[in-house]
Every structure is written in structure tokens, then in C-alpha cells.
Amino acid sequence: MAWAGAPTVAEFAAAGVVRISLGSAIAQAAYALAARATTELLDKGVYDATGDGLPYDRLNALLG
Amino acid sequence: MTTFAELHRTGDPLLLPNAWDVGSAVAIAAAGAKAIATTSAGVAWSLGVPDGADLGAERQAAVIERIVGAVGVPVSADIEAGYDSVEATVAAVVQAGAAGINLEDRVGADLLDPAEQADRLAAARAAGGSVWINARTDVYLAGSRRLDEVQRRAEAYAAAGADSLFVPGLIDLKALEELAGGRCPSR
Q: Which chain A residues are within 8 Å of B185, Cβ to Cβ?
């Protein structure tokens, strides 16, 4: 299980590791964005944290 | 299609991002992942319970079924310590379409005895058929943090039918190299 700052995929591969996962790190990062966007809205009055979101149509199409 | 087992290659490891609901799973699949694992923590949080509580086989399997139905790649289910019954939980997630499972050797704060966990892995193998069993050991998260204990457990878990070993908390490359040379290669 890797996380930010852990060895690279190439380094794990060279050590003979055959699977690399991220545990709950992606979920934690996504929930952090929810918190950050809220803080931004409440405290700064702007909405820039959501700027890199997946496009609505693309996400919607993935579930079609 | 390449099977989930075939994606585990020495020198070319399976890169396995972790989803927690259908939306995250389709985003991960669309970004190119060849397989997806769930994160028990993320699944639990999305359903309003803490990780390590009692999410239960039924709710876990329901999430797996929805994700499997939405993506075209193999899905591995993080079933924590197997909830009330390892057999029932493995059967439920395999029925839901899981290609693999993670089963850990810790219930609450305590590591299980290696022989007891080996029995639970054997039960998982019996219930899961050819499902890929990733045996997680929490020696580095909640135990002695000793490599020789991990190696002893790896032997016992492999003998019980585990396909791979997962040692969260261990990223030391030398230690991983030693484990990878053993009977139950490390993840």
C-alpha cells in the first residue's frame, strides 16, 4: 500500500512487489476537497477549489 | 480479457486504485485502471459508519455488486476481517462479482493468532473458489513491526490458500524484496 511520499512504482516493481494499491488515500483526498471547497465558500466567498472537477456530462455518461 | 490473477506480475505490478462507491469506481476505470479494489474505510464512510466497525457482509456485497455492474474491469473487495462469518462474507462478495478479496488478520486492536488466521483463510478459499485471496497482515500497523513475524505469517497464510500477502505500513524496499522472494509474494 502506497501513499504520498512512498517509493515510486518503479522502485516497488524492482523490489518484486506485484500489486500496489492506495488504501483509503483517494477517498481521503476526495473528502478533503469537499471540506476545502466548503471552507472556501464560507470563509473566502469564492469557489475555485471545484475548478478541476470531472465534467458533468462525462461523469454522467460513465454511468449511462 | 486478462484475468485478475494474470495482472499480478513480477516486474510489472498491478496498479490498483481504490474506489468506495460507483462514481469513484467509474472515474477510476475511465482513467485507465486495469482493475479496481475497494477501500473498506471509504465504503464505510460513504455509508455513514466508521471503518473497523461492523459494516457487514450484506452492505459490503451490495456495494461490490453495484461497482461490478458499472465497470468492465475486475473488482477486488476489501472485506476487512470478514465480519460475522468469513465464509458467508466471501460467498456474498464472490456472488456479487468480486474477482478478489482482502482478508486481514486483525479484529479490533488485536492481531489474531497466525494459526487462527490460517484457518480463516482456508475457509475463505473453500467459500471463494478461485477468487484471488490477498492476505493482509497488520504486523506493521498494530503488531510487532518485525519482518520475521511477517515471514512466518506469510508461510502459514500461503499454505492456507492465500495468493498474495499485503503488509500495510511497510514500504521499506529491502524488506519488501525479501518478502517478494518468499512463498507468498508481497503487495
A: 16-18
Contact B71, B29 (CB under 8 A): yes
Distance, in Å, from the CA atom of B58 to the CA atom of B66, rounded to the nearest integer, reads 12
CB-facing half-sphere around the CA of B72: CA atoms within 13 A: 7
Q: Among residues B26, B65, B25, which one has the least CA distance to residue B42?
A: B25
pTM: 0.96
Are B182 and B154 contacting, i.e. CB atoms less than 8 angstroms apart? yes
Using the Cβ of A61 and the Cβ atoms of chain B, whether some distance falls under 8 Å is answered with no
Question: What is the distance between the alpha carbons of residues B165 and A48, in angstroms, rounded to a whole number?
Answer: 42
CA-CA distance, B106 to B40, in Å (whole number)?
14
Percent composition of chain B: helix, strand, coil (DSSP 3-state, to 5): 45, 15, 40
- The CATH homologous superfamily for domain B5-180 is Phosphoenolpyruvate-binding domains (3.20.20.60)
Residue B100 three-state SS: strand
Q: CB–CB of A63 and B70 under 8 A?
A: yes
Question: Residue B9 CB: number of other CB atoms within 10 A?
Answer: 11
Which DSSP symbol is given to A50? G
Indicate which of B176, B178, B179, B184 best probes the interface with A, i.e. most A CBs within 10 Å of its own CB.
Answer: B176
Highest mean pLDDT among B70-74, B108-112, B180-184: B70-74
Domain limits, chain B: 5-180
Residues in chain B: 187
Q: What is the pLDDT of residues A12-45, one digit of tens each?
A: 999 999 999 999 999 999 999 999 999 999 999 9
